[in-house]
């Protein structure tokens, strides 16, 4: 079972998270999601456990538990249906590029050509 773990302290390590879940049974993998630019934890992750009964017990007992002063959220991770994945073009209508573009008119690419 794939388990979502949220509201994690930013300082928690994957080994610490693994330890918390191994109390309930075997753990296949642990992944804390990090920002790809800064490498800093985003405060959530996933734990994969092969035995569903052990995984459910871990969910029941760890959901709402306090880890390093924060109450964590633990529940079964459900994959998003294909239609709900975010697209980078979702909130853009037509060809609205915004910014400088044609709103200033002409070919002015900076510089002060108008009033010498």
Automatic annotation (TrEMBL):
Domain of life of the native organism: Bacteria
Keywords assigned: RNA-binding
Biased composition (Basic and acidic residues): 77-87, 106-116
Region (Disordered): 71-116
Pfam families for the chain: RRM_1
InterPro entries, A to Z: Nucleotide-bd_a/b_plait_sf (IPR012677), RBD_domain_sf (IPR035979), RRM2_NsCP33-like (IPR048289), RRM_dom (IPR000504), SLIRP/GR-RBP-like (IPR052462)
Gly residues: bias regions: 96-105
Stretches assigned to the RRM domain: 1-79
Official protein name in the record: RNA-binding protein
